[in-house]
Design goal:
This is Glycosyl hydrolase family 88. InterPro entries: 6-hairpin_glycosidase_sf, 6hp_glycosidase-like_sf. The protein folds into two domains: about 130 residues, no CATH class; about 80 residues. Helix content is about 60%, strand content about 0%. A two-stranded antiparallel ribbon has the order 1-2. Strand 1 and strand 2 form a beta hairpin. It is globular, with a radius of gyration of 18 Å. It starts with 7 loop residues before the first helix and ends with a helix.
Length: about 250
């Protein structure tokens, strides 16, 4: 089994620890445990984590200050889906695996992969063509690291990201859905009423501009893509619906 470009173990962990799915926990655990990751960047991360050498921390404070980080020798900075986005998904999934199986080396791998994520984000975040699919997963990964380590620097990064994010329109439905998911995840931790307001406004935007009554699904909101897409993405719709169910 191979994981790519989705929060597989991350979401399986939440499902597997819900009493409603208690009877299925062993199967869900098997799915997560047998997830594996293929890329030169992952090989680099795994080798470093297994070396026994001191490992550098993710430079979240530097990125919060607006610094552009130098790239690691082994990194894919020019592809969104198979570089930046894949790295962010992998960070969150490794953290979930660590939570499930109590293997601290997985957390070390997640931190090293997040360094690569931040390097790309710090250099590409103002490039609308590169970040067309949205950049909220970088903050979701930071939130997962905060939950795993209780280090305030990660939550500070999330707060900074949200304050900057509010000044930008959504590039498309994927961007809106991942940002909505971030707000749904961070609000219970912070109880920040402004975040609840942002969440409610994003739900309203999607209901007004994206929901198709004929199909009962959320469709593309990008003015660049809307004329060409009369389809809905199951993964994106599932993400949106999971948030809506928390706020009925």
């Amino acid at each position: 089994m191979r994981q790519s470009n989705q929060w597989m173990c991350r979401n399986l962990y939440d499902i597997g620890h819900d009493d409603a799915f208690l009877a299925q926990r062993q199967k869900l655990e098997f799915l997560c445990q047998n997830t594996w990751y293929v890329s030169p960047a992952m090989d680099d991360v795994r080798n470093k984590a297994e070396s026994g050498q001191p490992l550098p921390e993710p430079e979240v404070e530097n990125v919060r200050r607006g610094e552009k980080l130098p790239y690691d020798p082994i990194i894919d900075p020019d592809r969104y889906t198979h570089g930046f986005y894949w790295y962010t998904m992998t960070v969150s999934n490794l953290i979930a695996q660590n939570s499930w199986f109590n293997d601290q080396q997985l957390l070390s791998q997640a931190k090293l992969m997040y360094r690569k994520t931040l390097q790309i984000y710090s250099n590409k975040k103002t490039d609308p063509d590169f970040m067309f699919g949205g950049d909220a997963p970088v903050a979701i990964a930071a939130l997962d690291l905060y939950k795993a380590t209780n280090q305030q620097k990660y939550l500070d990064f999330v707060n900074t990201y949200i304050s900057e994010r509010q000044n930008r329109p959504f590039t498309g439905i994927d961007d809106a859905a991942s940002y909505l998911f971030l707000l749904d995840q961070v609000y219970p931790l912070t109880q920040n009423p402004q975040y609840l307001s942002y969440l409610t406004n994003t739900i309203s935007l999607l209901q007004n501009e994206s929901f198709n009554l004929n199909t009962g699904s959320f469709q593309e909101i990008s003015p660049l893509l809307k004329p060409y897409l009369d389809i809905f993405d199951v993964r994106t719709n599932s993400l949106i619906i999971s948030v809506l169910l928390n706020h009925l």
